[in-house]
Amino acid sequence: MKRFLGLMIAAILMISFAVSAQAVSWKVGDVDFSINGSIRTEMSYQLASRGDNNKKPDRNTFILESPGNSWIRTSLKYDKLDAVAEFGLILEDHDVLRFMRHAFISYDLGTGNKLIIGRTWTILAEDGAFQREGWDSGLWGAGELFAFRHEQIQFFHKGEEFTFKCSIEDSLKIEGDNFGLKNDYTTEDIFPAFYANLSYSNGGFKINPSAFVQSYKLKSNKDNPNNKDITVTAYAGALNTSYRNNIIGISTEIWYGQNLYIHLAESNISQHNGFQLQRLDASTIIGKPVANNAGDDINNVNCMGGWVQVAVFLNKAMIYRIGGGYQEADSGMSGINYEDKLYTWGVYTNFEYMVLKGFRVIPGIAYLNWGKDVNKNRFGTNKNSLGNDTFFGVFFQYDF
C-alpha cells in the first residue's frame, strides 16, 4: 500500500507538471466550483535516545512516510455563501484512511463581517513554526500551542488593519479516571469553549493576541455526600508577533495557561505513522491536571511556553529558516519523589527550495528533547530522563 501511495503521488506530480495545472475551477450556472490540494511526503533518518530507560533500545532508523496531512479540497461559492470540504489521507498500518479535515460554510454579512459554521482551524495561536521534520510537526510539544481543527461557530470581522474573530466550540473533555481520581464520574458541559482572536497588521509588522476558556464538570456517580462534583477549567492566552520585509522574517509566540493538556497532547503521541517519539515512556501528559492526595479532587497545573523563528529570503525560490521553542508545566505532584516542573524543548533549521511552481523541497534537521518524567525513579535507578529525537531528512510538498 505504501508503494501504491508513492506511485500515486508520483503520477499526480508528473501529470500536474506536464500540464502546468494548479487549482481546477469551473462554473455551473451562478455557482463557482474549485478543487485544489496538497501532496506531502517525507524521507528522514531518525536518531532516537530512550534516555534513562535501559530496558528499551534506542531507535535509529530510515523512514519514508506520508506525514498524514496530504489533502484535497473542494469549494463552491454562490452569491454570499461559500462552502468547503477538505479530505485528508493518512497512511497508517499499511492502509489508507480518509478523514474530514475541514467542512464548513461561511456567509458574507457585508461590511467585512462573516459567519462561519462547521469544522475548521481553532483560532487560538494561529501562527506556527515552519518545522517540517518528524511528520510535519512544527514544534508541537516543544513550544508551540497547537489547537488543531474543531467544530465551531465563528464570527469574523476584517477591517483595513484589524481583524477580529470569536468562536464557540464544544468543550474538549477527558474522563475523570484519566486524572487518577478514585470515584466514578460522568462528564457534563457547563458552557461551550469560547475563543477570541485579534490581529493588527501594518506594513510588514503583525501582532496577534488570542485567548480561550472552557469548563466542564465531572459529576460524581455515587450518592455518598462525601463524593463531590469536580469542575475542570482550562484557559490560555497567547501572543503571536511577526515582522517581514524582502530580506528577513521574524516570528514569535509566547503563551500561558492552565490545564492545557487538550492543546499540548501532541507532545505525547507515541507513534504517528512511522515516527515513534521517545516521549512514549512518560507517565503523564504535560499540562494535564492530576488527582490530589485524597483522590477526590484535581490539582490544576499551570503551563507556559513559546517559540521564535528567523527566516532569510535568499530569492523568490529559496528561504533559509532557523528556530526553536520551549515549554514547561507544573507537574501537579508534590514530594521529594516527584519533579515540580516538566519541560520539553526543540531546535531546527531547514532550507526551502521552490523547484517548480507549487512544488517545494525542504531539507532540514530537527532536535526534540523530551525532558524528565514526573517520577524521579521512573526507570528504577533513580533516573528519569525521557530522551530525545533527532531527524535528518527531506520534506517534499506539492500544492496544486
Describe the protein's architecture and organization.
With 400 residues, the chain is mainly beta. The chain is 6% helix and 57% strand. The strands form three sheets. The chain has a 16-stranded antiparallel β-barrel.
The portion of residues assigned to helices is under 10%
> If you compute it from the alpha carbons, what radius of gyration comes out, rounded to the nearest whole angstrom?
23 Å
Shape: globular
Q: Count the beta strands.
A: 22
Strand content: over 45%
Gap between N and C termini: 24 Å
Give me the strand/helix succession.
Answer: HEEEEEEEHEEEEEEHEEEEEEEEE
Number of H- or I-type helical stretches? 3
Summarize model confidence as the mean pLDDT. 88
The major sheet is characterized as: 16 strands, antiparallel, barrel
Class per helix and strand makeup: mainly beta
Q: Major sheet: order of its strands? A: 2-4-5-6-7-8-9-10-11-12-13-18-19-20-21-22
Short key terms for the protein model shown above:
400 residues, mainly beta, 16-stranded antiparallel barrel, two-stranded antiparallel sheet, 22 strands, 57% strand, globular
Question: What can be said about this structure in brief?
Answer:
This protein is mainly beta and about 400 residues long. It has helices spanning about 1-20, 135, 260-265, and strands spanning about 25-30, 30-50, 60-65, 70-80, 80-90, 95-110, 115-120, 150-160, 160-170, 185-200, 205-220, 230-245, 250-260, 270, 275, 290, 300, 300-315, 320-330, 340-355, 360-370, 390-400. It has a 16-stranded antiparallel beta barrel with strand order 2-4-5-6-7-8-9-10-11-12-13-18-19-20-21-22. A two-stranded antiparallel sheet has the order 14-15.
